[in-house]
Amino acid sequence: MNWQTTADDALRTFLRQPRLGLVTDVDGTISPIVADPDTAQVTPRARTLLAALRPRLALVAVVSGRSAADVRERVGVPGLVAVGNHGLETWADGAVHLAPEAAAYRPALEAARDALNAALLPGMQVEDKGATLSVHYRRAADPETAEAVFGPIAQAVADDQGLRLFRGRRVFELRPPLAIDKGTAFRRLVRDYALGGAVYLGDDTTDADALRAARELRAAGTCYALALGVESDDTPDSVRDASDALLPGVAGVEDFLAWLLKAVSASPTWS
After folding, report:
1. Which residue from 41, 191, 223, 238 could staple onto 208, CB 3.0 to 4.6 Å apart?
2. Closest Cα partner for 172 from 126, 238, 218, 207?
3. Distance CA 74, CA 117 (A)
4. Which residues pair with 25 in a beta bridge?
5. Per-residue pLDDT tens digits of the chain, which is 271 residues long
6. What are the strands, taking DSSP E only, across the chain?
7. Which residues contact 27 (CB under 8 A, 6 or more apart)?
8. Beta carbons of 26 and 74 less than 8 angstroms apart
């Protein structure tokens, strides 16, 4: 599904809206997936394009499962809105702001972290992101076996601590049982910035919440929002099903950002 062909009419309609916004995931979208998440880097072209789009749109934001502070530093574009931990925290006014209802779950997360660390298989890693935990198994000798063996362990730990377990691409995530995700984060950004048009870009299971939210907002007439999934060799079905069109990997995202920059530079509409 070629986004330029499939979404041509939708993109033209999007550009006619007042106050346009762009919201993007990070890993697998503007940063290639790597075995060690600490070494992931946003591509220079994506960073340059995001920086150029920022003054031309009402909103340029990144929404990630990473912490908000990590996102802000890793993307490295001044003025971007950084939403971390799947919507549980936001970087604003020089500090990280955690959703108040999430703070009470910190002791449970710490207990879960210790239990998970005690049961890790070789090559696995627990990442404590403050408001959530991620268990990475991409570097396990056999990731499929690691997923099958460790999945029940992660579920039991989550249940014991009153947390929710989510699965992504080679990662288990434990989060507080709150009705906050990338979809609610996207809706909040659309509302807070009074966007008439918005695009969400994402590649993983957790992005499907935001991709679906974009289509629901458009159907409701609240905001003309588009859901653009990012395709790879292991794109989840949930992303394919929730997307209006698919971009071919990080390079495809860069091409879309370049197209958008050219389009809004020719006819700025956000102010």
Report:
1. 238
2. 126
3. 26
4. none
5. 567 777 789 999 999 999 999 999 999 999 998 888 889 999 999 999 999 999 999 999 999 999 999 999 999 999 999 999 999 999 877 889 999 999 999 999 999 999 999 999 999 999 999 999 999 999 999 999 999 999 999 999 999 999 999 998 899 999 999 999 999 999 999 999 999 999 999 999 999 999 999 999 999 999 999 999 999 888 999 999 999 999 999 999 999 999 999 999 986 555 4
6. 20-24, 59-63, 81-84, 89-92, 95-98, 125-128, 133-136, 164-168, 171-175, 197-202, 224-231, 245-248
7. 33, 37, 40, 64, 65, 66, 203, 204
8. yes
Strands 197-202 and 224-231: parallel
18 three-state secondary structure? coil
What residues are annotated to the active site? Answer: 25
pTM above the 0.90 mark?
Answer: no
Between CA 103 and CA 89 the distance in angstroms is 11
Q: Which two tokens stand for residue 155?
A: 């579920």
Q: Record the tokens describing residue 135, joined without a space.
A: 């268990």
**How many CB atoms lie under 10 A from the CB of residue 179?**
8
Phi, psi of 188 (to 5 degrees): -65, -40
C-alpha span between 238 and 93 (Å, rounded): 35
Supply the mean pLDDT for the chain: 94
